[in-house]
Records
---
Amino acid sequence: MNPFKQMIAENIAESLEHPSAQEIVQWIEKPPTSDLGDYAFPCFKLSKTLKKAPQSIALELSEAIKMDDMFSKTEAIGGYLNFYFDRKKLAEKVLSEVLSQKEKFASSNEGAAKTICIDFSAPNIAKPFHVGHLRSTVIGNSLYKIYSHMGYKCVGINHLGDWGTQFGKVIVAYKNWGSQERIEKEPIQGLLDLYVKFHDESEKKPELEDEAREWFVKMEQGDEEALSLWKWFSEETIKELKKIYSLLGVHFDHYTGESFYNNKMKPVLDELHQKNLLEDSQGAILVNLESYNMPPCLVQKKDGSTLYATRDITAAIYRKKTFDFTKCLYLTDYSQNLHFAQWFKVIELMDYEWAADLEHVPFGRVTHEGRRIQSRKGTVVLLEEVIEGAIERVFNIIEEKNPELPNKKEVAVDVGVGAVIFNDLSHNRIKDISFSWDTAFSFDGETGPYVQYTHARAVSVLRKAGIDLEEKTFQIEGSYLEDEVSNQVIRQLETFEDSIRDAMSKNEPSILTRHIVDLAQSFNRFYHDHPILVEDVKVKEARLALVASVKEVLKLGLSLLGIKAPDRM
């Protein structure tokens, strides 16, 4: 919890019978301009209870409370009680904390002994890993890092789409038109071509759809040939997927796809039956959810095969037993909202109290040139091509502008990949994104490369000053950092923890991207307005401490987004 907000809340609570400090701290705001203070408490919320005008409440509180000397004054303005920091003391406290804690700055142990399961990425086997999969992958990876920073034990799960009728389609296509050599040479593209070919041919020969369903039933019945082909397709696809995950710097604790739960579903179906939750519908089995204004949740088809819902219910029960999670997050696009609402309700109807700990984290869809990305139509933009394109463009820029840069290829990878990730995470999670080759590699404006460059600029200043942060202990005189430009940087360092908490509570990494862009912009204003390597030793020391603190927080912020921070660019 932000210590300054907590301090304000406790002081206000001491002067009131209610609400509690815990409630008050949630109401404290950051004013739109520094003229209105550093924090503000809106007294409108107390007006009805105390039967007084907000301005009167603000005046009374201003006279009653006694703040720590970290604050220079309190002032009642228009129904708000505003709090102003002592800028000298704030600078000394914040910079000292950043420089002593480094990568642990703004962290917490609040998640100690609590587990968060995060189900993310989840591409389909035998289908391409396209730009539409990027969102789940990078949002999930960032949330994994953010929750971990706040002390939670995170379990990253890649619930691969490795089961279903699409495999029957690929088997039919492979047996009719495929070749082993092509699949081994280009697994993802080869399997995609077969999948598209199947749909083209099935429009002329509808009986191919029946043949595909038959092959999937064979898979479920343990047919040796069907399972052998399925396993081969899966292994070849996973090899290619891991190359992309390696480029993105994404790690999973478990690759447990849908097939992992095949031998675990019967006990769950039996339990649903024992709890009188199942109904027969023309041979299919479902859970009736009409009372909850939802369509029925189908758990078994009339041919005996299972569905996504069956496997998701089974997976949730398995995860609770295995990991005893405090919360289990599911990262998918919003088109699956109903699917999750249905099977979450089924878990609740099974009398599992932890149903409330299941959370769908939906995000907007990715379209390409106004069209949905569809594997069956072949209208995909391969993620690997996007990443490689970004890396190539960065390398060409380096060759043109800084050809003597050491480790050019490594820097090009860090910046190119960072651009792709930051571009995605900078959008509000729920908004749709239209992918365009023209904007995919944009490095101008509020981008990942801009933040990375600002970090490299800070490192360059420290390098010129001959400072080794592993050995250096700064003597910070805060009186040299009281001006508006310096204070703006320090306030953004101070509120960095608030952004992390906000991003975590809303499962919204874009809050963090916004914060580090703002910090980078404020620092660049400071850099241009204030010479740093000046003759006055105390001024230089104070400004270098600010530079070093910004460097540490930009690196930390980027790392929580899953992005590296090169020292040179």
Note: Confidence is low (pLDDT under 50) at residues 373-378.
---
Amino acid sequence: MDRLLAERERWPLWLPVFLGLGIAAYFSLPVEPPLWLGLALSVLVVIPWVVLRRRAWTAIIALPLLVLTLGFAIGQWRSVVVQAPVLERHSGKVLVSGVVAEVEAVADGGQRVTLERLQVNLDGPVPTKARLRLKQAEPVPVGAEIRLWANLMPPSQPVAPGAFDFARHAWFLGLGAVGSGLSEVEILTPPGQGYWLNRLRHQVTLRVTEAIPGAAGGVAAALITGETAGIPRQVMDQYRDSGLAHLLSISGLHMSLLAGMAFFILRGGLALVPRVALNHPIKKWAALVAMILTFLYMLLAGAPVPAQRAFLMTGIVLLAVLLDRSALSMRLVAWAAVLVLVVSPEALTGPSFQMSFAAVAALIATYEVVAKPMAGWSVTHSRPHHRLLLYLAGVVLSTLVAGSSTALYGAYHFNRFAVWSVLANLLAVPITGVAVMPFAMLSLLLMPLGLEHLALVPMGWAVTVVNMVAAWVAALPGAAITLPPLAPWGMACFTLGGLWLLIWRGSWRLWGLAPMVLGLSGFFLAHPPDLLVDGRGYAFGLRMEDGSLLVSRGGRIIKESWDRRAGPLSIERWPKQGRSHDGTLSCDPLGCIWRRDGMVVALIQNEAGIAAACASAQVVVSAVPVRDACRGPRLVIDRIDLWRRGAHALWLEDLKTLSVAKWQGKRPWSHRPVRRRKKVEETPSEPVSETQKDDI
């Protein structure tokens, strides 16, 4: 208790932690709780606190519980507020009209369009918002009402238990359908007064990519407007494998450079006018202008979570200048996290929030320790080569701290670890700070004059150099390591231990190392499934003798997700007829037989193969309905099971199965099979290829 009271000034830093625990408790529930539950729990905590408020220990216990229950309630109410109609089933070819809310150019051609106020003739709920992939290259004007023939689908469910849940992501975006355009776009009404910000963002992106062609233009657009769809997939992979992906996310580096440039240029310019400098608070004027510009830049970038966090922290610092107050750095992080969680509680489960706040909190906590020694050293070592050495040490230390603090979250979400990230950041961050971002900010100032090319051309040169660094580092031996999936409990232990280590200042902060090590042990306890099947029985994945995963077929999303969750993928091709190299898999036109660990597994693709498979196999996985025709096997997963519960994972050792439906639970965004209603006449539907699904 004495240690706790001695660090009383650090208590407010736990406010976002308990708020996040309440939000995490809501999202981890297997069923959707009644709407009144969160507020009822908060009332139950407040009552004893009011009665016993004079007791010293009451605030220590009751306040965290109150914040935790409020976080639970915030998560509940947010999921209700964003509720929107969701498409029940594939629409087939339908005539769709709506207002273009957002347009993103895609690197491999075409564009991705978000439509609002959707109008389409459907049997069932009609979404109000949909995202379509269009093949036409001519940009669709933002704000225009358009009409086209399209193929609509519900937001896709995870391709494996534990994989990325796009359905939940779409739920909080209000996105009720995705699909692809099947005809040219017909403009019904030209753009009106609405959607001016998205229109401006799209126009800026077009002007950037016109001045900077190719991959450098896609990266430059991402740095200015936050649109990453124009970055080629190969370049994006190189940034991830080299540890430079954070540069593509508009965050602290971008905001601080913009705010710093605006503040010092305006203040320096006003200082040249003695009458103004001596009679007016030019420092506060500069801070106010910098705050306004950073806010507009955040809006221009689409206000992603890292940009929100960076704006909030930069804004609080500038507000402190306006109020003649000094800013407390760790409290900046805490209040920024609280504001983001209150506005968008679903951000807690995403990589942007976790990696952004983990990096900033770790950096500030580290520099709280090393700031004084570094300042003392700089006083006694003031020569140019000493300053260069101090700068390099700062870059290396920042990279090590930020990289190590975000590595687990990257491994949890992407199952990848960039080995050479320190080297890549040491080379790329100075180029980004000195050449890329200053020219990016200058281009925005010159754009109203039509002179943006004066800044964008040199920016393109600098971006090309950064791209070359990313490509070179990503090509180094062992540049990126694929890690096994980490269970949620492992990430929770690591996070809570890390927070304990970062927030407290006394020696007891080292207690946080124990749960961090426990969380990391989750990697060694991971046991990937032996068999994966998608929700249609279209694609199978089998664990071979060498530990690799042999996949029958599937698009990019299936293969990449299965590679991360249960890989590595085998380089061998699935035998359409014959045996695999290790002899465990044999296939014919009716299906396949897989023998592993004394178990016989039948994979059925044709109704004609049901009888033979059910007579000889202990496990049957069928892409066609089996119903009661299979009574001999110990486990049967047929087309009906896949339709009802989505993709399945199977462990042969104890015949344990896990479906997407069981993993998701009964939540508003969960997998819900809907029976097709019979019609007298139906518009023929066009099948959706795996390639089309990947593009959506």
Note: The longest strand covers residues 93-105.
